[in-house]
Amino acid sequence: MEPQVIDKVLDTMRQFVREEIIPLEAEFLAKGFTAMLPKLQEKREMVKKLGFWCPQIPEEYGGMGLSLMEHGLVSEVLGQTPIGHFVFNCQAPDAGNMEILIDHGTPEQKEKFLLPLVRGEVRSCFSMTEPEHAGSNPVVMSTTAVKEGNSYIIDGHKWFTSAADGAAFAVVMAVTDPHASVHQRASQIIVPTDTPGFELIRNISVMGEPGDGWASHAEVRYSDVRVPQENLLGQEGHGFAIAQERLGPGRIHHCMRWLGICERAFELMVKQALLRELGPGTVLADKQTIQNWVAESRAEMNAARLMVLDAANKIDKQGVYASRNEISMIKFFVAGVLMRVLDRAIQTHGAMGMTDDTPLAYWYRHERASRIYDGPDEVHKMVVARRIFKQYR
Amino acid sequence: MEPQVIDKVLDTMRQFVREEIIPLEAEFLAKGFTAMLPKLQEKREMVKKLGFWCPQIPEEYGGMGLSLMEHGLVSEVLGQTPIGHFVFNCQAPDAGNMEILIDHGTPEQKEKFLLPLVRGEVRSCFSMTEPEHAGSNPVVMSTTAVKEGNSYIIDGHKWFTSAADGAAFAVVMAVTDPHASVHQRASQIIVPTDTPGFELIRNISVMGEPGDGWASHAEVRYSDVRVPQENLLGQEGHGFAIAQERLGPGRIHHCMRWLGICERAFELMVKQALLRELGPGTVLADKQTIQNWVAESRAEMNAARLMVLDAANKIDKQGVYASRNEISMIKFFVAGVLMRVLDRAIQTHGAMGMTDDTPLAYWYRHERASRIYDGPDEVHKMVVARRIFKQYR
Amino acid sequence: MEPQVIDKVLDTMRQFVREEIIPLEAEFLAKGFTAMLPKLQEKREMVKKLGFWCPQIPEEYGGMGLSLMEHGLVSEVLGQTPIGHFVFNCQAPDAGNMEILIDHGTPEQKEKFLLPLVRGEVRSCFSMTEPEHAGSNPVVMSTTAVKEGNSYIIDGHKWFTSAADGAAFAVVMAVTDPHASVHQRASQIIVPTDTPGFELIRNISVMGEPGDGWASHAEVRYSDVRVPQENLLGQEGHGFAIAQERLGPGRIHHCMRWLGICERAFELMVKQALLRELGPGTVLADKQTIQNWVAESRAEMNAARLMVLDAANKIDKQGVYASRNEISMIKFFVAGVLMRVLDRAIQTHGAMGMTDDTPLAYWYRHERASRIYDGPDEVHKMVVARRIFKQYR
Amino acid sequence: MEPQVIDKVLDTMRQFVREEIIPLEAEFLAKGFTAMLPKLQEKREMVKKLGFWCPQIPEEYGGMGLSLMEHGLVSEVLGQTPIGHFVFNCQAPDAGNMEILIDHGTPEQKEKFLLPLVRGEVRSCFSMTEPEHAGSNPVVMSTTAVKEGNSYIIDGHKWFTSAADGAAFAVVMAVTDPHASVHQRASQIIVPTDTPGFELIRNISVMGEPGDGWASHAEVRYSDVRVPQENLLGQEGHGFAIAQERLGPGRIHHCMRWLGICERAFELMVKQALLRELGPGTVLADKQTIQNWVAESRAEMNAARLMVLDAANKIDKQGVYASRNEISMIKFFVAGVLMRVLDRAIQTHGAMGMTDDTPLAYWYRHERASRIYDGPDEVHKMVVARRIFKQYR
């Protein structure tokens, strides 16, 4: 897309977010996802009409066909509100599942699972993490898929299967060959959630909220779940490789989303500092501590943004493998900036920062996960350092 | 109390907390206060029988009569669980209201308001902060109490009137003389919540939870609320002075409560680090980053605890006025330690740290307020620095 | 310059720094500037032959004519050693004085002062900061220049007139009109150091070292110093404006120099971590704390570098005025990264990090000034925040 | 000593430091130790007359006989200036050597080595660290002492043998039994520095200064150094145990010295903030950032001081072994506070903070070692965490 065109698109999206989505925020924070769904569907129709539906999906499947870098910029705009991505149908985990299906799905899988997803008719989930194993080491896994006849029989226990509540199908990571080398044991298999043996135990209460629908994280038990072998995604034993492949672009989208949150939090902080009177003729913005926070936040956000765009550019030009360090570094660097900016914005709001009268408290508690999921900061640092050491050995 | 006696008391309390209260925690986190009240009442009866009821209250009123230092140690023990203080009837804001009533109440006020509180028959609230004014400057206030006949007529708008939901009465800060000097404008007046014109607008949604009963923070409107002048607490114009007076001991109790939270979070972190396997024969506790967190947390908690006990000791010996800097410094120092220890404990738990399967997430979100209420850190730092500068001028 | 050409130039410079300059470092650290001058002059001749002399100076004056961005990249390469810039004749404060003379000098001033500087025959200094006034507020100044006949008579007291020791001339900031508006009071005047009344009181002992020659910071007294009015640089009253103008490009050069220091410190840290055995088969690099430092340093350095290049690009495209925030932000952001990377590198070296057996200790102490000169971090943060607030008012 | 008595002693010492020692500081910083020695000797005579000589040494050997806690308080007072401890003859490494000789010396060793030290007639050094081995693992050592006839023949290479320049003797750690278990290989042996084969290679340039006399850190080679076996300190193989034993009390002294530095730096910061005008009627002290630094420094210093006194108290009551965690924790906690307070004090002084016009720059560079020597912070954290984990296993 031409730079002027994408700029124009982003402007329109920005305006749409501000005028159409942000006004729904308070209700979403108060009532949750399911209660809001009708209103969200209305907005989704508007997005379709604007031609902004599924910005990250190739045009042949019905999306805008944006490049990684372009969709990163979109993700930043949508990230300004917790429901932005959903309204544009580029929310996790569906966006990731669409990517996997596009890259590895058979024509039948695309027909049956991808297209309804892209059309926004159904939702999906991704079922990898297990409560019994450290998420930081995704190759250790107990869920198994055993072949029998034309089927896989899946048994296992997962949690943080986000958005499972109401999803039409799950992409499940399961060990298909326990004797293979560690990175080739698991496969990804599509499991419709109405398959007997699929049991959503609970929406886990996360930071005080079990949530519902798309905005939830389920604990799921797979007991003797039987699906046809044609539900295998890609090749057997490639489960981990497919998941890895997805991390690079996913990271860009997430980091840009976090930066969208930062921008909104920053704006709220600045406005509140100007608004809040401390006494006659003095506002919070006059205090040097607040000024420090504003300047430090701006600098850190700019730094973080340049890093993410640089990583996106490197992925576009040199591929994911060559960009592994960049992809790891933006993870912990941007998550750190996000947490600090949110913290300063809340402190600037005082008691109001604790309330759900702004979205700050929502992000403060739920985005704490940014330092944990997809590998905790500590693992990424270790991995980056080891690669650097290797260059000098 | 003899050191051996208090040590014994603390041991018994510690065991009680562990065996009787912590097992209720999960249910409290899931269902909230009101649903739990019957079970909490049972425990309260047990505490009464143990002779540990109202540890901070003089024996003549039915408490244990502990000194500030002793009750600090109790507060640390009870702080290990979010419902510890309530079970012993020394929870905020009731504990503070009891203190005020003991020090400033008339015999009639004590009979009518204090004794039911001490007996645990009713709850109360304290109504000071206003949404229109910065909480960091408590002398600026719009709520007024105008005399008419034998009554005060109170009009105003408050929020963060914690525990108003279900409270029998509120202690309200209201301007009684707008022309007085800035620290003598306001008075404290007791307002039964069934007085016409007292309106609980909402339990504010704080960090995703409106809460209920004692575990809530209300927005309240006072419209033409008429109470007899005998409901004045202490002298007219002394509202701010009484509030200030309460801050010293209250700070000790709060800081020790925070340290109780730290101890529990620390224990959870250490145990999880030992439990969580990363691979064959390796646990999280073997990782140096986790070791750093454990050592830094232990050091910071020890430092914080020594500071609080030192401040308590100074208050006991030299009074609140001479200890103002210590009282301010423990505020921001201990709150900082609390936030860091909670953060490390959550990160150690990974995804589980985000859930309500431990109390960490509850404290992470609700104790974020520790850096805000009773004067944000920034105000305390400013005040301390100015006093220090004054000594050198 | 074509990207490939500049890449080639940088490679050659990198090799030159490594093979020709770094080997002189130990001797420089031990003996100081003057003792090293003959050897440095040899290297300067080599640089001239390579065609890399004065990279930042337009070709018409005898330099390489690099753009701001290109010279930034050069500055990063040269910054890897404390004597890199001097060998290429682009060291502060001479580089800044050359720029001022090129932009504002009369033909006579260029002939007499600029050309010998560019040829490397003389050195110069810049005399602005006064011990009696906060450096953070450069418009407050006591030094005066009074007209008499065809002369200015200069009286004042300066310090941190870096490199005054052995300089041929000083560019002096002096108040020419005390009644003008605050930013138009001062002018820049060239004062040959052999003018009667110019007194170098001392090379200030900075971090234990008075230093000598170029590597020194002088306290200077100007007593009745008489220079012809034709020594005025630019217009009268424009002293502050000229100084400001110089800050943008100067900041890029400095920040890239700091990043060169970071790169060298990072390399030393990584190599030492791989070298230092802790026991049989274990090296420091195996420790997670060191791994954290390596990963965090790499991420922060990348972030900082992207910010500086982005600022350089913005200056090139939109000018200094539009880039003021970026110019301020890289100041405090990059200085912070610099201090942290140096600190980690020293800690990784243990006792050796304290010695002058590496350049780390030199940078640790002397680059501490990076957070102070050209406006302390605190002033830049305040200024950035105020500009941001203005956009929202 | 009665509390009133020790308070009085401390007051007198404080006054002495202020009136007699601090005035020598500038000259010490400019000229170094040897040039100052005559003036320092004068002050030492005054201290003897005041009865404050060797405060840490039992009265029977000619000291004041203070307890660990009392001497800690003295160390804090003396720490306010870099030459305080030397003037009272309780400087490292002599103080440590005196302790070892008192506890483990034979009557002959005491006569020959201890008494001249206590009388201040000679100086000594402690020779442990080796450049080839990580100081963080003191049990790995290459220097050997081989018995031959009545002698030990010592061969090895040491560095950071502080104060070796001009010392009368060294206490050398050397392996006497390479086949013993790791903690029993080494012994401590007294080596007069005039023994043939003792070679002071250089005073290592540390942070730009080789230093001289007491204020230096030597690299030493031991080549075929022959000393009588009666120079063995304590039992053979006990070298490491004796060194360990010394660490507890030495840590208290060091940490209290660091807190003395903090107090002085804090005072300099506060005074400078009040003095430095930013404009008409405004001083640095009016800026909130400076206020933050003052309040945070005061809080951290108080916390650190309480921790050290608590550790001293625990050592006094329960011994070094039971206090190992406390002794480790004050190491990294107080060193951290020290570095932060110095950093803020320097930043408050602006350019002046970089100069040797205050002692801040001296401490900034030389006390950087506080995080390295006697085990780097990282090792202490690891050790503390492992002990804590052990309690929960």
Can you walk through the features of this model?
- The structure is a homotetramer of 393-residue chains.
- Chain A is α+β, with helices and mostly antiparallel strands.
- The first copy, chain A, folds into three domains: 3-105, Butyryl-Coa Dehydrogenase, subunit A, domain 1; 124-233, Butyryl-CoA Dehydrogenase, subunit A, domain 2, CATH 2.40.110; 241-392, Up-down Bundle (Butyryl-CoA Dehydrogenase, subunit A, domain 3), CATH 1.20.140.10.
- Helices cover 53% and strands 16% of the residues of chain A.
- In chain A, strand 2 (144-148) and strand 3 form a beta hairpin.
- In chain A, helix 1 packs parallel to helix 4.
- Chain A starts with a helix and ends with a helix.
- The mean pLDDT of chain A is 96.
- Chains B and D meet through helix 8, helix 9, helix 10 and helix 13 of B and helix 8, helix 9, helix 10 and helix 13 of D.
Key attributes of the depicted protein:
homotetramer; 393 residues; alpha+beta; Butyryl-Coa Dehydrogenase, subunit A, domain 1; Butyryl-CoA Dehydrogenase, subunit A, domain 2; Butyryl-CoA Dehydrogenase, subunit A, domain 3; 3 domains; 5-stranded antiparallel sheet; 4-stranded mixed sheet
Summarize the structure.
Four copies of one chain form a homotetramer. Chain A folds into three domains: 103 residues, Butyryl-Coa Dehydrogenase, subunit A, domain 1 (Orthogonal Bundle); 110 residues, Butyryl-CoA Dehydrogenase, subunit A, domain 2, CATH 2.40.110; 152 residues, Butyryl-CoA Dehydrogenase, subunit A, domain 3 (Up-down Bundle). Helix content of chain A is 53%, strand content 16%.
